[in-house]
Amino acid sequence: MIIDLHHYEELNLDPHNQKSRFLSIWRQITERYKGYPDTVFFEILNEPAHNLTPPLWNEFLYDCLVELRQIDNHHTVVIRCAQWSDVQALEELVVPEQETNAIVSFHYYHPFLFTHQGASWGGPDVATTGIVFPGPSAEPVVPAEGVSQWVRDWITRYNQVADPDLNPCGYKLIRNEIDYAAQWGILHKRPLFMGEFGVVASADMRSRANWTKYVRTLLEAKGIPWAYWDFSANLKVYDVEKREWVKELVEALGL
Predict the structure, then answer these.
(1) What CATH number is attached to the domain comprising 105?
(2) I want to staple 211 with a disulfide (CB 3.0 to 4.6 A). Which of 114, 133, 205, 221 is the partner?
(3) 0.85 surpassed by pTM
């Protein structure tokens, strides 16, 4: 069981004015659950982002761990990297050396234009749909109106690169980034946990299953435990209306 602070947008947007509240919340949580079994973990913050920059997050993390460990020195803490817990932000994460009971966690949604295609909360840049994994599609994908230039450039490469390993929506990108995470863990002597990965339901099912299975098997090959996101919302592995599991994703997850 992981207890975390989720969607703490006030902290992300106004970190300095929220810091005392943030530390106070964790003092209360730690005091409340310090007597619970060691199978209860404390996750400091889900997806630090926006104005809670990587250097500032390292500072907040250090101060929070000091407060937490004054109350509870035996429960495991889960530490996410900054920039929405993106795997690439591991490079800037600093875990205090004295913290010996911590798991470092990251999320994985690359390539973003594939995993979030059509997501209502993702803004105009993810409005383009029809992107498959591995790319390219049988027919060229046409960018949606109003997308940024980098999205147009990405889709151009996606349409032109025929090799599914080298395509920007292909295997090599994912392989390299999961390998990077594994090497980071070895270098820093920290266990890792993939806290989220998944593809929006607006993508085609075969591609969702292909991507999910590929990421899952890479993680398991590197000895990195994982959690799929999410259960029954936008990236659902369970269909509440039908009251049934999404078979293709369950199989892709090896469940």
Answers:
(1) 3.20.20.80
(2) 133
(3) yes
